[in-house]
Write a structure and sequence with these properties.
By secondary structure, the protein is α+β, with helices and mostly antiparallel strands. The chain is 18% helix and 29% strand. The protein is globular and about 35 Å long.
């Protein structure tokens, strides 16, 4: 398991360009050819309940994630050409962003 709060980001992939018809199961099926998928999630819009056109796939290990990234980038899924990249943690980068830490 994770050590010292480390995350599974090396095992987690961002998938962009998804068809509105692609669901969690379809995403999982496409990626499971490369290894054990722990989670496959299409991000949905709160307002419309429809896909936002991207999702995340988490693999059991980093090697399978890398194989899937190499094997599926610029391929078609449900009629759309998808983009696969390593997921980045939300809020990664410098803390505070632009103008952070300024008081009055």
């Amino acid at each position: 398991l994770a050590i010292m709060g480390d995350d599974d980001s090396k095992n987690k992939l961002f998938v962009g360009g998804l068809s509105f018809d692609t669901d969690d199961n379809g995403l999982s099926d496409a990626f499971s050819k490369f290894g054990t998928v722990l989670e496959a999630r299409v991000v949905m819009s709160r307002e419309t309940g429809r896909s936002r056109g991207f999702g995340f796939v988490t693999f059991d290990n980093e090697r399978d994630a890398e194989d899937a990234k190499a094997g599926l980038t610029d391929t078609e899924l449900d009629g759309r050409r998808i983009r696969v990249d390593n997921a980045t943690k939300r809020g990664s980068g410098p803390r505070g962003g632009r103008g952070g830490g300024r008081f009055g």
